[in-house]
Design a protein that fits this description.
Elements lengths: L4 E14 L3 E8 L3 E7 L17 E9 L4 E11 L1 H5 L4 H14 L7 H13 L6 H15 L19 E3 L4 E3 L9 E2 L2 H12 L12 H18 L14
Antiparallel strand pairs: 1-2, 1-4, 2-3, 4-5, 6-7, 6-8
Bound molecules: zinc ion.
Length: 243
């Protein structure tokens, strides 16, 4: 980030208002990581930026380096994920993926894998897909991107593979002998599902099927894992999801 003018392919993951007519957007970009930028006049209806520079937008942006924030001076839309806007049931999922990505990324360095993951996740919600499974796959892959993937092969303490529980504190499976106060039993079905979601490319999640009990179990497991291991606390938007 040296020159006064620079361009980047970005996804808008958060917005807030600034003054009378401007908007500050948080972008996750393929090339420059995560940062905030100002969209001048974005809240005026006649503005060129008004139509495009908003959450759930994928585009190529040109920036002028300002004193506080980079200022968006050009914008070419690549794709708008309108299904999040058009379908009130889908809207919280789009926000959840954005919030998780935002909280996961300190913004200090670019992570093209994270960018691609969010891009793929937002796209897939536009098709016929099990929403809960897509969220779980997204969470597990995001953890993997950050080097925090839960250890799901054997006991994280002693390495044995007997009667596993899941321990957020230990960052994965623990056997009955090594389990502590935070450990919860994990069924074979939920464990197989979690392993499968980690290995399966995101776009193939639509081919997977799982029962409501397994999905519920896995949702609890990833929530406790994130809350403890990544110190993310409670994600506001996760509470808006139906499951
Ligand atoms: Zn053990």
């Amino acid at each position: 980030m040296g020159e006064r003018i620079f361009t980047a392919e970005g996804l808008i993951i958060r917005t807030r208002i600034l003054g009378e007519a401007d908007r500050i957007v948080t972008l996750l970009t393929r090339e420059e990581g995560k940062f905030e930028a100002v969209a001048r006049g974005a809240r005026k209806t006649k503005s060129k930026l008004a139509a495009g520079v908003d959450i759930f937008t994928h585009g190529r942006f040109t920036f002028h380096r300002g004193r506080t924030w980079p200022i968006i001076t050009g914008f070419d839309s690549i794709e708008r994920f309108n299904w999040f806007r058009d379908d009130p049931d889908l809207y919280p999922y789009g926000l959840y993926l954005a919030e998780l990505t935002d909280r996961f990324n300190s913004g200090e360095e670019s992570c093209p894998e994270l960018f691609q993951l969010l891009l793929d996740g937002w796209k897939l919600f536009g098709g016929n897909i099990d929403r809960a499974l897509l969220c779980r796959a997204f969470e597990l892959k995001m953890a993997n991107c950050g080097g925090y993937s839960p250890q799901l092969q054997c006991c994280t303490v002693c390495g044995c593979d007997k009667s596993p529980s899941f321990s957020p504190r230990q960052g994965g499976l623990v056997c009955s002998g090594c389990s502590g106060a935070d450990s919860v039993k994990i069924t074979a079905g939920a464990l197989a599902l979690a392993r499968h979601l980690i290995e399966t490319p995101l776009e193939q999640v639509s081919k997977l099927r799982a029962g409501p009990e397994q999905k519920k179990e896995l949702a609890g497991l990833t929530a406790s894992f994130f809350a403890y291991h990544l110190e993310l606390g409670e994600l506001k938007t996760r509470r808006l999801l139906p499951e």
